[in-house]
Amino acid sequence: METLRAAGYEPTTRDEDDDYLEDFRRVFGESGHEVWRAERVRGAILISDNGCGMTGWLIVVGPHRGELRDRECAGNPPFEPYVDASGNRHTFRTWYLAWLERCEREARGERTAGAGSPSAPPWST
Is the pTM of this model over 0.70? Predict the structure, then answer.
């Protein structure tokens, strides 16, 4: 929204499917989709590609700062929190420590139920 207003354009009613995508196209022309896409992930850092169009993000601003979120690349989905086996939201610290622990178990030759490769995220176990 701030990006559209900074360009001197007052956004129209939100389109639930595209989240102002048409407004971005009106204001920025051919590059509207790219500007819209950058706006959608502002305040988050891409940290992993989990395959099948799923990506992992570290939220760096706002009330969920420090949490990890999952996002499907297709369409305009929300960021969904990563949770542990108990349903607690992962912070970067808890996510990274769980990943390290799993890698250590695998390095010792211990089987991890449902685990993928050592580079797979810990929530895939």
Answer: no
